[in-house]
Structure formats: structure tokens, C-alpha cells
Amino acid sequence: MPLQNCTDSGKSGWRWGKGGKCYTGPQGKKKAIQQGISIEGPEKFQKMASSGRIDISEHDIPFVSYALCDEGYSLEAIVAVVATLRSCLSKGDEDAGYPPNCNSGYEEKDGKCVPIDDVEAKEMTRKKINDLPDSDFAYISPGGEKDSSGKTTPRSLRHLPIHDAAHVRNALARLSQTDIPAAAKRSALQKIKRAAKKLGVEVGE
Fold first, then answer.
1. What is the longest distance spanned by two Cα atoms in the chain?
2. Which of 1, 10, 96, 151 can pair with 113 through a Cys bridge, CB separation 3.0 to 4.6 Å?
3. Strand 101-102 to strand 137-140: parallel, antiparallel, or no bridges (unpaired)?
4. How many angstroms separate the CA atoms of 82 and 133, rounded?
């Protein structure tokens, strides 16, 4: 991503691109964004945002509009960029989930669900899920076979892991959004509730 974390003299900060200046302090991210807008211009900045290449939060949007205004861009250009950022944030929330119910491939960090960037961490997370027994899933689609360890293959037939509290919360939040048949959803919900009770997770009526 062009907007990146960096370190300068032991202090964490933000920069635009690998060769950009590392801005530290409370205003570091804003300064890096402003540098990006100056370099890229609104159209390219908007394209980067729409492709998910810029790590922008809801709190950053007002500053983006101010920075575009300071650069002398038109109201039309500012509105277009802000609209794109808000659209991407909404889509990103759907993909990532909401703490503490982060979706698969995301982890909670600073109150948000963010992608697990580390490839090794992703592989370890997937391996851990694949190693779970069938009993640790809310629903298993028909048509699979059991391997030598008694687990269903292919693993993609196993849905909504419920082996810990975080995944139980996630399963509760995601069950209604899945393609699991209605009748199976009812039994899956009961299984999730039993896991929730065992793990001390509160379940609303």
C-alpha cells in the first residue's frame, strides 16, 4: 500500500510510498496523506482508494477533504474522492466484520477488524482451523468424505468454526448471512448456542 507505517529514530509514523518521508507524532498520518494527495492528485488518489490500496479510516476523511481543498481542487473532485472513500469503508466493514466478530482472514487491532497481513500468520490460522475436528464446526455440508483422522474433506465443506469464544461470536453474527439451508441453520444455531454456553458467551434472545 502507498500509505505505510514507518519508524524514524525509534518513533512509529506514516509515510507515502517506500521512499517517502516518515512523519511521526499525532499528525504523522495526516501529513503522509497530504503528501500522497500532492503527489498523486485527486483522480489517482481516488482510484487507489477504490482498489483498497489506501488505509483510510472514517476519522481521516475530513482531513482528506481539507487537504484536497488546500491543494486547490474543485468541490466536485473533493466530493467524488470522499464518496469513494466512504463506499470503500462500508464494503471493507462488510468483508472484515466488526470487533469482536472479525471474519476469517482478519484480526482485531485498535478497535477494527484488519487483514492478517503476515502470510505465515494466515497460513497458521488456516492450518489451525483445518486441524479442528468436525465437532468444532456449526455446520458441515453434505457430499464430503472422512479422512484418516475422521475429518471431513474437502475442508471447505465445514462452516463456522466454534472452538473458542471469538469464533462463537463470529458464528452468531454470520450465520444469517451464509448460504446454509434454512432447516440446517436452525440446528446450526442450536449448536452455536451450546458452544456459547460452554464458553461463557452471552447470546441475545
1. 66
2. 96
3. unpaired
4. 46
CB atoms within 10 A of CB 113: 21
| pLDDT value, residue 191 | 95
Residue 119 pLDDT: 47
Helix%, strand%, coil% for the chain, nearest 5: 50, 20, 30
pLDDT at 164: 86
Last residue of a domain, one of 62, 96, 130: 96
Peptide bond into 154 cis (omega under 30): yes
For residues 21 and 39, membership in a common domain is answered with yes
Q: What is the structure's pLDDT at 72?
A: 83
Strands (E), the chain: 3-8, 11-16, 23-24, 97-98, 101-102, 106-109, 112-115, 137-140, 145-146, 152-153, 158-161
- Distances from the Cα of 101 to the Cαs of 7, 27, 61, 165, 204, in angstroms? 31, 30, 25, 10, 15
- Based on the domain organization, do 50 and 137 belong to the same domain? no
For residues 168 and 110, state if they share a domain. Answer: yes
Give pLDDT < 50 ranges for the chain.
Answer: 118-119
Q: How many CB atoms lie within 10 A of CB 125?
A: 16
Cell of 169: 461470536
